[in-house]
Structures are given as structure tokens and as C-alpha cells.
Design brief:
The protein is an alpha/beta fold. It is built from 14 helices and 8 strands. It has a domain of about 160 residues: Rossmann fold. Strands 2-1-3-4 form a 4-stranded parallel β-sheet, with helices on both faces. It binds iron/sulfur cluster.
């Protein structure tokens, strides 16, 4: 078993590699291999794996990529992530990726799929609609058709006809992946000092750019390490971070929230890797239906899902309660419509529920965190000094 620090450094190297080197190496190891890039938030990676291809998460350039050409494709008053994705593409960092999937989340991502088509980036570009109807016979069937469409694209590249066995095997691997990630979050709920949120983030993000088998092997070792009583507890409040599900804050900002006095015990940074709660049934004759049903019945709350019978403010409040958090840090990317439109809904509800919160906006390339750190530090101090009634949902 590798040392924990070695594992974390390996994960950081892969997670922020804008050349997607591990994916490129994987492709070159065997002729005919296919890489499929997907944008945030969520995509059922199982189906790509089952088709003999490798899913590659594309989460923008962070604070590592200077934007020059990407700005020319977008007006100034939208978020940053599509510009940096364009910059990465135009700088040919993604030339080895064969096809691209743009899950429906907002108009910006939809338009980005159009630009990829226009610029002829990749051998296929698929804008993938996710169901907003939560009846299995309507939304569930629609979702299966969308997945079949993706599989058709991959088959045109590698000739692989996906079997039930292959799909169930892939579902099983990703079930294990989600189980271990949740184990890490569960351990941190009580012992957040065993692994910082910066480390958790790097470990989870690394899994989006390497084969799931390799990521599972890393997660197994991390889980073993953090069962031990390592690290030193500090006097910090516990918070849930919400709103940063698409464009990602720079690692320094993720670190700054904890340095300002908050243990982050849950978040939606890498929401796609944790979107499905619990296992997907890997024993049926119709695995695509299992994936669709799991999306309908077991999805995390998300700004991209309109589930009128299951209000997202209650779902976020439940996470706060289940994690024993003292409050919520709303962190939205500047100009992120889905996140910023949800903010008043959450905040009105939380005022009534007595859940304390603070909010700020960021962009993936900001590297001055002083103001945000002071704001979050004041939030933490105010909770420590003026303890209130426990949260009741
Ligand atoms: S950051 Fe927000 S607005 Fe921008 S692409 Fe993502 S979801 Fe859309």
C-alpha cells in the first residue's frame, strides 16, 4: 500500500493535468481505443466504459490556463468555464479525445456544443438532454434513448456492440467507486481533519481522468489510511458548500474556505461523481433501464434538475442536517444562471428554517482569496461565538 501523501500527490498530478496525459497513455496502450470527453455536471460514465472506451471529465482550465482565444467566442457577461474549455481545445490539448458529450445544464453548455460542431472539434459532438419528467415510462424511456444514441456514436468508432454483461460489470465498478467516495465523506463527517477538502477534491477529480479500475485501487488505499486516527482536530465549524457544481473554484480557493475556519463536510464540487445516491442495480437484463431508473429515483439534488415534487431546498437542508453542519457556504461561479437563480430559493427557505449561510461568487481563474477568506472567517467566528438553536428540517 502506498503512503497517503504519495497517493494524494499522484491524484493532484492527474486531476489538474490539462493535457489529459493518463487518458492519452491509456488510448495509446492498445490500438482502437476511444476517449470520450464529457462536460459537467453528470454523465453516466458506465456506458462509455462498457463500450470499451474511456470517459474523460473536462472541467475547465482553472487558474492554470491563460485565456486568449477562448474569450473571442463568448460575450463578457457569462461564466468562465466555456472560454477555458475552448482555449484548451484550440491549443490542441484535447486532440486525442475522439468525441464530446455536453450534458444539458444551461444555454452556455448548449452553445459550447454548437461551437465544437462548428469548429469540427472531435469525431462526434453530442448535446445530451436529461429527462425533466420523472415518470419511468416517459423520462426513463427518453433517457435510455439518449444513452443508446451515445453508444451508437462510440460503436461507429470502435465497432463495439455493448452487451448486458459488459454494462452490468461497468455499473458494478462505478458502484464501488461511489461507495468508496461516500465512505471518505462519511469518515470526514466525524473526523474532517483526517483528510482536507483540498485532498478529497483532488482524489475525486483524479477519478474523472483515469480508468475507473485505477481510481478504485487508489480509493481503496485512501479509505484504509483514513480509517486510522490521523491528523489533528482544529477548532472549526462544519459547513456544506453548495453552488460550485459546474465551473470549479481554483484549488487555492477550496483550501481557503477550510483555512478560514470551516471544515467542509459536504459539497457539490464534483457532483457528477456523486450524483447517484447508492448503488445502481447491476443484476438486471436491462442495465440501461437500471441507469435511467437510478437517475429518476436516486439523484442528488442539482440545479439542473427540475423535480417539482422534491424541492431542492429541502434536499439541501437534509444534507446539512445529516452531516451535522453548522451552516452553508453558497459558492457560485460568476454569471452562473443555474446556481444564482437557485440562490434566493435556498436563502428564503433557510431563513425560515434557521440554517445559517453565507454566499460569494468566484471565477475559476481568480487567485486572490483574501476578501472571501475574511468573509468566511467572519461567518465561522460568528457561529462559534453565537451558537444558535440546532437546525430542524
Ligand atoms: S458555470 Fe453555470 S452558467 Fe456556466 S456553463 Fe456551468 S452551469 Fe452553465
Amino acid at each position: 500500500m502506498k503512503d497517503l501523501n504519495v497517493l494524494i500527490e499522484e491524484c493532484k498530478k492527474h486531476a489538474f493535468d490539462l493535457n489529459f496525459t493518463r487518458a492519452k497513455d491509456w488510448k495509446e496502450e492498445k490500438e482502437g481505443r476511444v476517449l470520450v470527453g464529457y462536460m459537467p455536471i453528470y454523465f453516466p460514465r458506465e456506458i462509455i466504459h462498457a463500450a470499451g472506451a474511456m470517459p474523460v471529465g473536462i472541467f475547465g482550465g482553472g487558474d492554470d490556463k491563460q485565456i486568449i482565444k477562448g474569450d473571442a467566442y463568448y460575450q463578457s457577461y457569462i461564466c468562465h468555464i466555456p472560454r477555458s474549455i475552448m482555449e484548451i481545445a484550440l491549443d490542441k490539448h484535447m486532440d486525442h479525445i475522439d468525441g464530446f458529450i455536453f450534458p444539458s445544464i444551461c444555454d452556455v453548455i448548449r452553445n459550447l456544443s454548437g461551437i465544437f460542431k462548428q469548429q469540427k472539434i472531435g469525431k462526434f459532438v453530442k448535446y445530451m438532454d436529461f429527462p425533466q419528467n420523472f415518470l419511468p415510462e416517459i423520462g426513463g424511456v427518453f433517457y435510455q434513448q439518449e444513452m443508446e444514441h451515445v453508444l451508437k456514436y462510440i460503436k461507429e468508432l470502435n465497432g463495439v456492440e455493448v452487451t448486458t454483461e459488459a454494462l452490468n460489470h461497468s455499473i458494478d465498478l462505478y458502484n464501488k467507486n461511489r461507495q468508496m467516495i461516500e465512505f471518505i465523506y462519511d469518515i470526514r463527517q466525524e473526523h474532517p481533519w483526517r483528510l482536507t477538502i483540498e485532498e478529497v477534491y483532488s482524489i475525486v477529480r483524479a477519478g474523472t481522468v483515469m480508468p475507473v479500475e485505477e481510481h478504485n485501487a487508489i480509493l481503496e488505499q485512501v479509505c484504509t489510511h483514513i480509517k486510522e486516527d490521523i491528523g489533528t482536530p482544529q477548532d472549526k465549524i462544519k459547513v456544506v458548500v453548495s453552488g460550485a457544481f459546474c465551473e470549479q473554484p481554483a484549488l487555492g480557493l477550496i483550501r481557503a474556505v477550510e483555512e478560514a475556519g470551516c471544515y467542509v463536510v459536504d459539497d457539490d464540487y464534483m457532483l457528477g461523481s456523486r450524483m447517484i445516491l447508492g448503488d445502481i442495480d447491476a443484476t438486471t437484463d436491462n442495465p440501461l433501464e437500471s441507469i435511467a431508473i437510478s437517475y429518476i429515483n436516486q439523484s442528488q439534488f442539482s440545479s439542473s434538475i427540475y423535480d417539482v415534487h422534491n424541492p431542492k431546498e429541502n434536499r439541501l437542508a437534509k444534507i446539512v442536517q445529516d452531516r451535522g453542519a453548522d451552516g452553508v457556504v453558497f459558492a457560485a461561479a460568476s454569471f452562473c444562471d443555474p446556481s444564482l437563480l437557485d440562490a434566493p430559493i435556498f436563502q428564503n427557505a433557510f431563513d425560515k428554517m434557521g440554517i445559517r449561510y453565507i454566499s460569494f461568487q468566484f471565477s475559476e481563474n481568480i487567485n486572490q482569496y483574501k476578501v472571501i477568506k475574511e468573509q468566511v472567517g467572519t461567518f465561522s467566528d460568528s457561529i462559534k461565538l453565537w451558537e444558535d438553536e440546532p437546525v430542524v428540517v
